[in-house]
Every structure is written in C-alpha cells, then in structure tokens.
Records
---
Amino acid sequence: MTTTKIIQFTAGHPNPEGMKTAVSVLRAGGLVAFPTETVYGLGADALNIDAVQKVFEAKGRPSDNPLIVHVASLEIAWHFMSEISNKGINLAKRFWPGPLTLIVKRKLIVPDIVTAGLGTVAIRIPNHPVTLELLKYFEGGIVGPSANISGRPSPTSAEHVYYDLHDRIDLILDAGPTTIGMESTVIDVTSDPPAILRIGGLNREDIEKEIGNTLRTSAQEILRRSPGTRHRHYAPQAHVILVPQNDRETFIKQLSTLKKDGKNIGAITYSEGLNTIDVTKFHLILSSSVQRYAQNIFHALRELDSLAVDYILIESVEEKGIGAAVMDRLMKAAQNS
Ligand code: TXA
Ligand code: MG
C-alpha cells in the first residue's frame, strides 16, 4: 500500500518544489494524477513498462484498453508516432493544446502495453498550465487514462481521484475542478476521412470545419478500431434512467412507478418544468447552460452515489456541441446500469 500525497497548485502561484517532486516521482516509475482541462489523468512514464503496468492495476483497467500518451509539443509527439496525415497535422495545429486525442501510426519504441498491441498510438497535448509545465520538465510522454476506477464516472476534481485511488497511487496534483468535464474527443487520422472514435470536449462541428467530413462510424467499426470501448463505462452504482427534456408528464410517470416499488430515487434536472417537481430529497438541479451541465454531471453522479440512491432519473440534453458528448456518456451509463 502506498500513502497518497496531495500537492496543491493555485493559478498564479508557481509551485516549483511541487513540480520537482512530481517529476521525480514520475522518473522513479511512480504514479502521479494530473489535472487537465477535460478530466484528471493518471500519469506514468510512457516508456517505463513497470510503471504503465501499475496504472492498469491501480485502475483495474482491462489490458486490451490502450492508453493516451500526453506530450508537451508536436516535436515530442514525434518520439512516439511514425507518421501522420495532413489532416492529422491540421487538427493538431488548430486544436493542440486542447481536448483532442489523435490516433496515429506508432513508433516501435512505444511499449505494447501502452497501445494494447495495436499498430497505432493515441497522442494528446492537454491544455492545462500545471500539466504542460509537468510535461515540459519531464521531457517525455506521460500515459494518462482518466484517474478513476475503471467503469466509474471520470474524475473532474482531485477529491474524485482521491476517493477512487487513494493508497494505490503516489501523488495527486490538485488544481481544482476541471473546466470542460468531458474527456477529449478521440479521432483516428490513419484513415481518410478520419473517424471520430469518441466524441468529447471538441465538437464534430468544429472538427469538420477544419478538415471536412469525418467518417460516420458504426458501433462495429468503432469497436474494431478501439477495442477498449467495449468495456463498461461512466456508470455510477445506481441505475440510470434518461428522461426527455422538460417533459413533466413522462417524468412524473417514471417517478411514481419507481416510488411504488419503494425505491430510493435521485434526480438530476435543469429545466424549469422538471426543476419544480417535488421529486425526492435527492434532487440535484444543474445549470441550464449545457457547458456547465457537462462540467458538473460526473460530480452529480458521484454525489448521488454517495447518498446510496437506487435509481437516478437524469434529464437529457440536446445532442449538439458538447451536448453530444454528454448524451454519449449518459446513454452508456443508462445501458450499463
Ligand atoms: O480527456 C482525456 O482524454 C483524458 C485526459 C486525462 O487526457 N484521458 C482519457 O483516457 O479519457 P482514457 O484512457 O480514459 O480514454 C482513452 C480512450 C479510450 O477509449 C481508449 O480505448 C482510446 O482512447 N484509445 C487509446 N489508444 C487508442 C488506440 N491506439 N486506438 C484506438 N483507441 C485508442
Ligand atoms: Mg476513462
């Protein structure tokens, strides 16, 4: 068992000692959870097989689910990738640092454990000052799956990381809650047109403005290219039921059925029509701004779990912009529960 240390980073207050500690833990093959603009990642030296193995163990992650390698610059990305298409370069130049992960052909130096034996590797430059500095001093690649126990909602604060992984990892760099709250968008640029394998912090609309159409991938095709996506994801312990936007009648019907069965019910809503229904004492009301909803939804799921509800009724959002990522996560959470 490891005692997990937490180091605070506050915007505008450099913490060179903290940074030095983080770099030396990584160099020694330890595990460091780091903040990004999307969610917190669980970091280890991408070229250290034992360290990467510990990442899989700490998360309970299936070994066929490959990891993203985080880097500080396109120049360092070239240590890990062997080639990239023009569209891939355009996306990198336009959106890095940012919530975009590119799947590219790998170099042989990348350990098989990182790529789950695939011929490709996932690369991202995250947009967070603390982690960009960490990457710069580390001068290499840092693997970073979301820093949660596999299958659970991704962590959007250091508290979530601590809750899931304390005593399993060495260090957490706490820079407060993340701003986007959804994971990065994963795009496979080894094909033309490129294929979106996971919609996330970057919209399809913005991607297509840059490179034209992307492939309309079937679920089958996503599984073929990204085998790890078949595993259980984003699921709280409670059962999740998605309800339509601002639809009082359906909501009340669902509610009374569950209540008849004597279930403990939680709810997450944001529209006037549903906010005002007297559901239960476990009713979380989120902002009607879809950005803020995205930012807070994983926290809300964790909070209701901690209150041990049996069911969570969740209000749907429109599937455009970041709303597409939110609905993708909520539908998976509902399927898995
Ligand atoms: O926002 C994010 O992407 C966060 C932060 C920490 O950067 N990381 C993250 O990592 O969400 P993870 O491991 O939870 O999700 C990475 C996704 C998985 O769906 C994985 O299967 C896919 O990327 N992936 C990784 N390498 C791949 C590859 N070579 N080919 C296809 N998919 C890959
Ligand atoms: Mg994850």
Note: The radius of gyration is 20 Å.
---
Amino acid sequence: MTKQTCRVVVLISGNGSNLQALIDQQAAGLLPIDIVAVISNRPNVMGLQRAAKANIPHQVVDHTEFDSRELFDTALQQCIQQFTPDLVVLAGYMRIMTADLVRRFAGKMLNIHPSLLPKYPGLHTHRRALDNKDLQHGSSVHFVTEELDGGPVIAQSQFDIQPGDTEDSLAIRIKQLEHKLYPKVVGWFAENKIALQGNQALYNGEKLLQPKMIQTDL
Ligand code: GRF
C-alpha cells in the first residue's frame, strides 16, 4: 500500500544535483514524495538555491558554529525533527554522523555513495577505482547505519570503465546514473517496498540477499 505522501527531508553539503533529480521527479508526478525541507551544513551552496527555486523550505545548520560533533548533531536532529519526516535522504551530505543521530532515524535514512560498495567506503572513490584498474565502477544506495558507508546496500548501478577515463569523466558518468538510481530507490521507500530489519535490508518483505542492479542507459 502506498503511504499517503512520504515526507522527505534531504540533507546536503553542496551542489545538490541528486536533490534536483528528486525535485524534478516529484514535480513530474513520478515520485509519491513531498520534499518538506532541505538542510545543509554549509551556507551558500548550490543545493540551497535549488531548494529555494523549488519553493522548498531550506535551512542551514552550520557545523563550524558548534564546539563538538555531538552538539552539532543534536541541533541537526532537532532541525530535522521539526519537519516530521518519514524519510531522511542524504544527498552529498559530507559529515560523519554520531551513532545517536543514526539510531534516531534507523530504517528511515538513505545514503548514496559513489562506489560499488562494499568497495571504497569513504572518499576518492573514482581515483581508487582507477588505481586498482577496476573494470567497472558505479554507485550504491544503502540504509544508513553506524558504520560509515557500511549499511545494507539496497540497489546499485554500474558502468564499464573505459581506457581513457579520468576521475572527472567517472564523476560525470556516476552523477548521470545516480540521478536515475536514487529517485528509484526513494520511490521504493515511499511505496513501502523496502525496509531495514536489524542490519538486513528487506525488499517486499523478503531479505535482500544482494543489491538490486538498476540498469541505466550509460
Ligand atoms: C554524489 O556523487 C553522491 O554519491 C555523493 O556525493 C555526491 C553528491 O553530489 N555522496 P550532488 O551534491 O548530489 O551533486
């Protein structure tokens, strides 16, 4: 059964092209979600402009104004909670979260990471894929758990690395596929197709034994 409308809060730190993909799909009537707020830990970023243009409430909780990660995450949690989200979507949100914050939104928080997890959690994923002479690269959407980029993966998209590829060319292709992959998985959540049980992702109530592979046109 489809939830009435899934209330989504999107957390960003910068550009927000994945946010834009969600905004566009919602506007086109292709996603049963309502993006009720965009929250950035950095002021003056492009993603905030995207939210403003789409008339979405947007706020900054600037991590540099807090003395500790705990104090910052407490403020962030309060900011998120005022919008009573069903789902929190991390879209280029570049802060490590405290366990408290992650637990508060257990099973209700998704992240997109530019690698074929469990390969390359953390930063510089494109460089690491090139350095290791990987044949393929891609992106993963996972439930957020206390382990950085380590929560159960729900879905992935991938493409072949070409001989002339650079970090920049990989970054461009990754974004293209992410803009299809992320809205699809957010849609699954909104339609109650996916859930987190303990440390296990479920799809239609069944244990997801491996990530769903989403084909893109790349
Ligand atoms: C994406 O590549 C995502 O995988 C990573 O951060 C990037 C955010 O890009 N977590 P954007 O801000 O959505 O353009």
Note: The pocket of 5-O-phosphono-beta-D-ribofuranosylamine is lined by residues 14-18, 91-92, 112-114, 139, 174-175, 178 (CB under 6 Å).
